[in-house]
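A reminder from the course coordinator: this example appears on the midterm review sheet, so study it carefully.

Given structure:
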């Protein structure tokens, strides 16, 4: 074998039930778009937004709009596009159905990407009637794309295998939340259109929590519950084990949604408080059951184990975020007011950076077909694979410290600290983008190496079978 050739070991699992996946590469469009929105939008705004808040750069008057654009880009763009792409790829397989067709997945992608790009640019930067209209058009496109995502997933699950497995219930709940999300996006867009591109704070706040909990949270536990315990040498959980935390999570989302009904301010605040409290119980309780918070992924080959560390860290972050939500939720429910601002911000970013971003990078490497051939490599993971892990750990810790320090340290210094977390996270995502691009570039070569290896093995087997017996061969000396 030449020096520049990559040594490959045989794939991890062989089983007669495993059907080779039909090659559908539209999920790559979702991953690529999620990365684009993250690097050019959400994480870039994460660096500049705190600097605008502290007055270090201009745009002070645009801060509320920048905050909403950042939240929108991160949730609908980075997390939403990734989860939609992977859910549309994985759910039909989990449910024993045919893969979704490109004429469904590609138009949905166009609607979602158009929506998030237009909203992220128009909300903070395009003043006047043009900006108002663009925000409304973005909301219509986003609502259509989100409704289609939820509808297609719901239909797939309803027509699929009916096994009593936890993933199916989380996935159903997730699909239903995607459909509900469409209505909230439209409502937020209509209010923003008539309110200078700004979504009223109670609606915006409720919407962001609902997205963390419902459409994103449920799919996180659907995909994890089916695979992660197995990576770590444990059995997948039984439905009755995850039923209580799963219901708590979704009840939390439902209570927060109910806070938007025409109620008194104190009743709404109390509902949000209880909603955060219940969702916190779910995020704290689910990781040890449906994910993993300890151990080594010894069921994976050594090359894939480094990706499993992201999954472990993500689940530990989920426990931390859950506890922060219980804290913030209890205070708000008790006092019937918007309380614990810093703790809420800490919980939001422990979920956004610690759980979601860590999990995206880890699970992409563990389940996306793009990385299938890299997972089989014998080579040890290099700096590009390890770098994002440590950068994200540092970014999460700094961001969460910055949130909890609200009101306890000099505000400008705190915001500069928060911005530095943004720089670290941006570099982590850029390195992950390099990983994706590298896997994509190497795929044909890796496939060729695998194919040559398999062809050589088959040729050798055929030659052995055809060879006439030599002297001493073909009979048993003892017989
Ligand atoms: C290190 C990276 C990040 C930094 C520096 C950062 C920074 C910020 C800042 C400064 C705010 C405004 C807080 C306030 O003043 O109330 C904010 C809000 C927010 N962030 Fe981040 N963020 C980061 C990553 C993320 C990620 C990965 C997500 C989600 C996946 C996320 C979701 C949100 C949401 C939903 C809001 C609230 C938006 C709203 O109120 O409409 N952030 N972030």
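Designed residues:
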């Amino acid at each position: 074998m030449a020096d520049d050739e990559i040594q490959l070991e045989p794939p991890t699992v062989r089983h007669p039930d495993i059907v080779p996946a039909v090659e559908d590469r539209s999920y790559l469009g979702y991953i690529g778009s999620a990365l684009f929105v993250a690097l050019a939008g959400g994480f870039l705004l994460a660096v500049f937004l705190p600097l605008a808040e502290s007055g270090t750069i201009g745009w002070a008057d645009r801060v509320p709009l920048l905050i909403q654009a950042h939240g929108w880009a991160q949730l609908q763009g980075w997390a939403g596009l990734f989860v939609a792409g992977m859910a549309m790829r994985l759910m039909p397989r989990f449910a024993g159905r045919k893969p979704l067709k490109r004429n469904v997945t590609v138009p949905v992608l166009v609607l979602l990407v158009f929506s998030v790009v237009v909203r992220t640019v128009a909300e903070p930067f395009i003043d006047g009637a043009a900006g108002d209209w663009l925000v409304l058009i973005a909301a219509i496109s986003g609502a259509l794309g989100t409704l289609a995502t939820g509808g297609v997933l719901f239909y797939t699950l309803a027509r699929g295998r009916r096994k009593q497995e936890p993933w199916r219930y989380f996935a159903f709940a997730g699909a239903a939340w995607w459909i509900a999300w469409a209505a909230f996006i439209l409502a937020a867009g209509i209010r923003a259109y008539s309110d200078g591109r700004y979504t009223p704070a109670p609606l915006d706040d409720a919407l962001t929590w609902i997205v963390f909990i419902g459409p994103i949270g449920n799919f996180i536990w659907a995909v994890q519950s089916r695979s992660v315990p197995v990576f770590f040498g444990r059995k997948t959980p039984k439905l009755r084990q995850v039923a209580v935390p799963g219901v708590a999570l979704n009840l939390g989302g439902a209570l927060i949604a109910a806070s938007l009904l025409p109620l008194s301010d104190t009743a709404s605040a109390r509902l949000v408080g209880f909603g955060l409290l219940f969702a916190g119980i779910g995020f704290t309780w689910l990781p040890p059951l449906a994910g993993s918070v300890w151990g080594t992924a010894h069921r994976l080959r050594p090359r894939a184990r480094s990706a499993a560390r992201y999954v472990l860290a993500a689940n530990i972050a989920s426990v931390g975020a859950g506890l922060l939500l219980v804290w913030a939720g209890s205070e708000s429910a008790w006092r019937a007011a918007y309380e614990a601002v810093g703790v809420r911000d800490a919980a939001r970013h422990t979920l956004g950076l610690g759980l979601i971003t860590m999990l995206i990078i880890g699970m992409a490497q563990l389940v996306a077909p793009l990385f299938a051939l890299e997972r089989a490599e014998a080579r040890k993971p290099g700096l590009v694979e390890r770098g994002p892990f440590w950068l994200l750990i540092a970014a999460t810790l700094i961001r969460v410290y910055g949130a909890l320090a609200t009101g306890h340290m000099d505000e400008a210094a705190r915001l500069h600290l928060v911005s530095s977390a943004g720089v670290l996270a941006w570099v982590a995502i850029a390195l992950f983008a390099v990983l994706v691009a590298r896997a994509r570039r190497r795929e044909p070569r890796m496939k060729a190496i695998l194919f040559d290896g398999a062809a050589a093995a088959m040729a050798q087997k055929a030659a052995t079978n055809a060879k006439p017996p030599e002297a001493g061969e073909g009979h048993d000396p003892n017989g």
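Residues 1-14, 18-22, 467-479 have pLDDT under 50 and may be disordered. The two ends are 41 Å apart (CA to CA).
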